[in-house]
Amino acid sequence: MPQNEYIEQAQKRYGRRLDHVERTRKREARKAHTDANYLKRVRGIKAKLAQKARYAEKAEIRKKIREHEEKQTTERVKDKGPKNALPGFLMDRSEADRAKVLSNSLKQKRKEKAGKWAVPIEKVKTVSEDEMLKAVTSGKRGKKSWKRLVNKVTFVGETFTRRMPKMERFIRPMALRFKKAHVTHPELKATFCLPIISVKKNPQGKMYTGLGVITKGSVIEVNVSELGLVTPSGKVVWGKYAQVTNNPENDGCINAVLLV
């Protein structure tokens, strides 16, 4: 167990106080009063931060109340006028039309959108910064160490112009720059060597995505014009996403699976 989780450890060993539930309930009940008292007394930057948090909290509460009201309102169809032509004997009837916040079609679309980009590798191991970047010393006596050498495979675009060495913060070695990837089509069961367009997402963080670092689990965009894929409307598909399934720095090549 990590060092800082001693409270959880004690709770597992000896359990909680007998009145724990009651104390928690009372603390929650008092919370509004204690918060109000704190907001009255606080000054300076702490007051600004507290007010900002409270503002966001109130906005969220208002939004929830509005959604709940919309969900529970029952509108009379007669007031708005019938959607379809009604016969005479139904004209005097008023039907209750319950307004739902999210219709079934919207929910379905959201589910489809969520499932659209299901990736082969969902979780990847976190790579430490020391493994990813190596400190490069500079200066007359080698005291300055603000430069970093990228140890992993990277992708650099065609139009990339390197900064002057003195000002270069991250050094991406030429030997670890890749332009093509071996992409497997899951339905065709065939592998193609396709040019990389860009690195869309690196699971290790935004900084590595911006640098174009390619590690296991990274989502890259590849040029699939050679495959002759066509959209339902008849347009040719140029770029498609693929997820890297190997460790390119160890294997010397990028293996990826096309996200269909």
TrEMBL record:
GO terms for biological process: ribosomal large subunit biogenesis; rRNA processing. It comes from the Eukaryota. Its main location: nucleus. InterPro entries: NSA2_fam, Ribosomal_Se8/biogenesis_NSA2. The keyword Ribonucleoprotein applies. Keywords: Nucleus, Ribonucleoprotein, Ribosomal protein, Ribosome biogenesis, rRNA processing. It is found in: Nucleus, Nucleolus. Residues 68-82 have a biased composition (Basic and acidic residues). GO terms for cellular component: nucleolus; preribosome; ribosome. The keyword Ribonucleoprotein applies. CDD domains: NSA2. It holds the Pfam family Ribosomal_S8e. Residues 68-89 are annotated as: Disordered. Component of the pre-66S ribosomal particle. Belongs to the eukaryotic ribosomal protein eS8 family. Ribosome biogenesis protein NSA2 subfamily. Involved in the biogenesis of the 60S ribosomal subunit. May play a part in the quality control of pre-60S particles. This is Ribosome biogenesis protein NSA2 homolog.
